[in-house]
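Example protein was shown:

_____
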Amino acid sequence: MKIVVFAGGVGTRLWPLSRKNTPKQFGKIIGEKSTLQETVDRLLPEFAAEDIYIATGSKYKETVMAQLPTIPRENFFFEPTMRDVGPAIGLVAFLLDKKFSDEPVAILWSDHLVKNVDEFRKVLRMAEGEVVSGDSKFVFIGQKPRFANQNCGWIELGEKIGDENQAEIYSFKRLCYRPKLEEAEEFFANNRYVWNLGYFVTTPQYLVNLFKAYVPDMFEALDLVKSSFDTQEFQGVLNEVYPTLEKISFDDAILVRLAPDRLTVISTDLGWSDVGAWDALKEALSGTDDENVTKGNVELKDSRDSLVFNYTGKLIVGIDLSEMIIVETEDVILVCPKSSVPKVKKFVEGLTGTPHEHLA
């Protein structure tokens, strides 16, 4: 099986650590490695380095290749410009289709936290087996929910097909993308739903056929790019064609249109968290709601349910903090209640055209 790790997002909800020129997946958010490096580490040695591919923007080429020296140079795919996730997945699918048309391929993301690594590897192999056997054309990997999460999609499960220890295989019923709070609470109370992680296993050929069926204009453009792959004309064709593709999410382009026939879902507990925002990172790293999470030179007294990350040598002292987020970098200090984290992205977007634009 081939593995594709996507590492192209900007991650403004983790500002000021994550910025346009230094996105979160390349930063040492939690430990001494980037989340991109940790993602690849989770795959090795179960999957060989030559079977792992990295997809990102061309502006991050030097950073990505420096962080992943064991990945073969020919396994890096670079988008000339950002066109959203639909075209990004399409590009990789079409290029892999030229070499490994019928071989299973797993789509993963570089900015997530996965605590149960052995289970993660196991379900990838389970999904591979489903595709190889022909029992499924497309396998979603879902996280058993821990709370009524509004920041991710949900998958409604159909009939149970089988299980392997704590991992259960179901038929697919439907997707719901970022529900309202009332819906999320209803989903959480109902054991027929899992979080959609954006992880799935299928084949390049099946993906290409989906693009042909649902986004024919994009199919024709990407087919032109594929025909030039592994030739001297490839980079020129890619640079000319890719920026013309419609900006559209993979969910809107493909997933919401899928018929449930021969689609399955593996439901399990990966200890998964999307660390795309500071409040989500706090939830992922703390054992209880009241527990504080700190990094760097930090001292907290009489404080609860707060995240304080210090990326400088200075000391941060917090007294009587409750449900607060404090992040200090060399040039910015962010201070806000946990409930105000959704406003961070809007603030960063508002920096355009101001004297502080360089901090975005």
Notes: Residues 42 and 117 are 6 Å apart (CA to CA).
